[in-house]
Amino acid sequence: MSHPPFEVLEHTADVGLRVYGRSLPELFANAGLGLMALAVEEQAIQPKERLSLAASGADAEEMLVNWLSEILYFVDAEGWLFCRFSIHRMEDNALQGEGYGERRDPASRSRAVAVKAVTYHQISVSRSGDGWEAVVYFDI
User: Fold this and answer.
1) Tens of pLDDT, residues 63-96
2) What gap in Å lies between CA 25 and CA 60, rounded to an integer?
3) What is the pTM of this model?
4) Torsion angle of the four alpha carbons 79, 18, 130, 97, in this order, in degrees rounded to the nearest 10
5) How crowded is residue 121: how many other Cβ atoms within 10 Å of its Cβ?
6) Rounded to an integer, what distance in angstroms lies between the CA atom of residue 91 and that of residue 95?
């Protein structure tokens, strides 16, 4: 029986989150926690240090992508592991917040999923019931 020289294997190249919050700042903080749950194997992370984080965007969707991209940068480039986020100031086009956690050698941690980037694919931020809901996808 002869086989072709290769076959294409279908696979999903992204993973998504549906995030909830009673307010827009809580939604963004919870999105950060969702990203951490995807990007880092579950482990005890202590809020030993805090890091100022900021993002801007033309609308809530772009701001969310930029906020999560900012978090992902510090996880990948500087070995940050966050266990909590807080948003101190939120305006229509910009937000300022902090991530709480600790820094570890990026090579020493195991990744749950190799999150490469935050995407605009099917992104949404909307009011729902008594709060807010967002859907965001990541390239993996």
Assistant:
1) 999 999 999 999 988 999 999 999 999 999 999 9
2) 11
3) 0.88
4) 20
5) 12
6) 6
